[in-house]
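This part of the workshop introduces the protein records we will be handling. To make this concrete, we reproduce a full record directly below.
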Amino acid sequence: MTEGSSASEDRGRPVLQAIAALVLVVGVMGGLWAQHKFAAHKDASGRPAECSNSENHLPARYVSGARLCTALNRSDLPALLGTPKEEIESANGSGEWITLTGGTKIAAPEATVSLETYTVKLSASYDDISVAETGELMGDARRTTVLGHPAVVYSSPTISIKFNLGGGKAHTGPGGTARCVLVSKHRKDDGDGSFEVAVWRQDDVPPDDTALLRVAEQVLQTVPGWSGH
């Protein structure tokens, strides 16, 4: 999820209208808490994590978070990110509604997969704004194409949450930078929905756009609702 604000109350992607954030979780006791948390998502054989069960509150006409998780949680994801020796440590999806200003609700299914170095998020949007229009609202957006579909690449700040395990308190602050690519569902940028892939690193180093686009090209064509036309 990315952090942003809308230039319009009634139109615009949820990322531009709802306060959200990519969250980096950092344990302060040598990373032991985080390692234990992630290990709980792996099976006994040590294979990469399977998608955890998550609630889906969306009608069947929308892609579910579970389906997005299945598409993102692929065995070659570490190699696509440039870290082939790593394993997927946790994977989950959810299907929720985002309520915009004025009470309008928009379906916002998403999935997140974490590795030692990277976290990747895949989300679907069902608003009526085109990718080009969204790009115009972002200062650093760069237009491109993904599998022949109009797309924009942009940066988003993240929020870091640090846990003090001894004192039971959490501290938040600025995190690193996520790189995101927003892609139209169709080759014609008609505002009929889009998908977004966001990548950020646990060490706060800006992600590589080449890796971001490589993941998008392989993952998006397997997502239900992706159109080759």
